[in-house]
Amino acid sequence: MKAIIVFLVMVLLFLPLLNGENKTDKIKLPPIETLKELPLELVADFTENEDIASPALPIMNAKGDLFFYDWKLSQVTKTHLENQEVKAIGRQGEGPGEYIWVLGICTDDQNVYITDSKRKLLCFDLKGKYKWETRTSNDNRGVIGVNGEIYYMEGIVDLSKLDKSTQGFFEFQKDKPQRLIVDEPLFILLGSASSPTGKKGAVGIFFLGFPAMLLDLKGDQIITAAEPDYQINFYDLQGKTKKSIQCETLKPQFSEGLKKIAKNKKNIYAVMDIFLIKDRLAVISNYFIQGKPRLDLFDMKGKLIASYLMPFQVDKRGHRLSGGAKTVRFTQGYVIYKDPDYSGFKIYRPKITL
Q: What is the pLDDT of residues 267-306, one digit of tens each?
């Protein structure tokens, strides 16, 4: 009888694992009113560089090479953390080594990879020499990571139904069809823009933001945040859910502009963006004090390490570094802040170990 009881207990413990159910950790975050600002020191100021107009999508490699897309100049640009020499990477156009509108930039210790709105993936070496390009098979939004001959991208999966639209995380190899690994919901609206005089324009789709998606090659996992609740999801590279983190918070905040667009819409992403800082997961969310968002740091097992208030005002819409918004981004342990009132950007280093 005792053996039967032990067997039944073991079955109850392991049945969720056998059924493929993931573990969800629930975490209570400290109130945002109690948070101190993340202490930063200025490392480089690119706001007075005349060769930079409106940078977006900045990313840095371990060597200090910094790449970004200057959307006003329609130019991918390379500079360096320790100097402000600017070098063009490719150029606008539709020929080899050219792009129309850049949607994503990724770099490693050898190359820089660029995704274009014309479904192209381009590769340049770190000196800017064009190496190759290939066609992708979906409307990608950007290249996220590279692992040998495998390229990981995010892209829109389906816009046919507004309430069921999704964005996916894809695996792509040259001369092979893309493989959808994970997809997450898109919060979008159908409406018309209005001019300052109140005249309505053409009807179109408004994106309330895009899911935050991150590739962690060290941990062989994909990390996403795409919920109106503060939730982080961990998947393996086959798309199987490993675990989730749910944090107790208030509802995420709309900007004034989004309030006018969304009206009765209740959903917006709780998480603005997610980044890797060494072996930490940094989460910037749509919770603010005087326009400054909260930052939560987790270890890769989902344990909360620390929470701060970012010392910048940041726009509440979406994620990624947009050329026309106040935005913040972590890369290689540095913080890049862009204010559209100035050209260029500023780079900071945390004064504390994250």
A: 678 898 999 998 899 999 989 998 899 999 999 989 999 9
Is residue 208 classed as helix, strand or coil in its secondary structure?
coil
Q: How many residues does the chain have?
A: 354
Place of tokens 């080594």: 97
The token duo for 34 is: 């109690």
- Is 283:274 a contact under the CB 8 Å cutoff? yes
Distance in angstroms (rounded) separating the CA atoms of residues 329 and 275: 8
As a whole number of angstroms, the distance between CA 195 and CA 80 comes to 40
Residues 6+ apart with CB under 8 A from 147: 217
CATH number of 23-350: 2.120.10.30
Q: How far, CA to CA in Å, does 110 sit from each of 45, 62, 63, 106, 303? A: 26, 11, 10, 11, 34
Torsion of CA 341, 88, 85, 343, to 10 degrees: 0
H/E segment holding residue 18: helix 2-18
DSSP string, 44-81: EE-TT-TT-SSEEEEEE-TT-EEEEEETTTTEEEEEET
What does the pLDDT look like over 109-134, one tens digit per residue?
899 999 998 889 999 999 999 999 99
Dist CA 330 CA 310 (whole Å): 12
